[in-house]
Fold:
Amino acid sequence: MRYSSITGLAVWMVFASCNGNEINYDAAGNFEADEVMVSAQQNGQLLSFSVHEGDQLKEGAVVGQIDMTVQQLQKEQTEASISSLQQKTSSAYNQVNVVKKQLAAQQTQLDNLFREKKRLQNLVTADAAPRKQLDDIDAQIDQLRKQMAVTREQINLYQSNTATQNRSILSEKAPLEKAVQQLQAQINKGQIVNPITGTVLTRYALKGEMAVLGKPLYKIANTDTLFLRAYITGGQLPLIKTGQQVEVRIDQDEKKYKTYTGTIQWISDKSEFTPKTIQTKDERANLVYAIKISVKNDGYLKIGMYGEVLFNGY
Structure:
């Protein structure tokens, strides 16, 4: 389609020049915009979809929701598994804490025995108590110290076992946490977010339909600035450059034009229609190059509208 229209334009330009028809513009073409096709990123029923043709949408606006119930349940199940792992680690730490409390109680008992020993020493020195009581309390202290040594060994053993157990638990926890992140990413993709500020050109889906991954939902374009795609001959190439301002005009009525200031954004580096043989200067006019001219839209310009360009207008 594009090739035939370009060919037709080139032939018309050559035909018009050969027949002496007056052309009062340098190039002509149609307005277009950068169109974005917004597609579904998940499979599921469209629970909501508030997009209509002609709507002006802002970038980041939420315009629909795909049913993500299954993914949400999977996420909750995985989070429950993580919670159960945390309970296992808490149980292991609680076991260590119980033994530590036991050691603390033994230390308190040992401190009391030392105070009692000091009191008895004073009594024995004053011949107010028999020596056997002091020997008995020394035996109790020695026995308690041995018990505390065993308790410390139990703490070390429990701590070592807990560390090993926790490493095993944490090795299970990390993949589960990644799974939660993946499920959340899928859930987020169920929300249809508009990617650019612009006007909805076409809607392809309705609320209640099944959305399929990659299936187009709607097409949107930023119409604040449109691009006039026009075609020039090889002889006109030396007259223009990117960034150059030109005059763009559209029909206002039968005899008047509405004019705009445009800027050349792009010039094709190769011809889009080339004859098989080029022998004369006139035949070189059949070389057609595409250019794109950006024009600020005041609301009158529409996609597909015909426009003309004057390079010498500026």
